[in-house]
Structure formats: structure tokens, C-alpha cells
Amino acid sequence: MIFSREYIGYLARRTVKHLTDVNMIHTAHPASVEERVTAALLDEMSLEDRINEEVRVILEAYQQEMLRTGAQYAEMFKKVKAELTRKYKAVL
What we know:
mainly alpha
């Protein structure tokens, strides 16, 4: 993940504070809203990490074939990652 959990928590707090200040949301329990926003941000930010891990698992399964055909790991990583990104409709 490119941001620390603490920074994502900070972003969530600032986002909730801003939305309540401009009256876009109303809540009696801002702490619970901050927790939910933090969880959503963490989930979204860790998507690339999960995709990268899935790519590694896929490429590990095809390791012997890649060696036999002379395919470059970095090139195959990019291709498989692009395909998974399209599959999950992710924006990275």
C-alpha cells in the first residue's frame, strides 16, 4: 500500500470533518462514520496489493512454461496485472 494506515485514518477524519462542515452529511456519531470511511479507504487502497499478489500466484503456476518459452517475468507481470485490473474494473 502506498500510504500508511495512520495517514489513511487521517484522511478519513479530515474527509468526515469537511463533509460535516459543509453540511453534506449529518451525523450524531462522527467517530463511527470515520471508522467506516477508514475501512472503505483501506479496502480500496489495498486493492493493488491484492492484485499484485494474485499476479504472483498466477505467474508462479506458469513458471516452468515461462522458462521454457523464454518469457520475461516483468513483461508477463505487467500483462497479467493489466488483465486482472480490467477483470476487477479497478483504477490503479
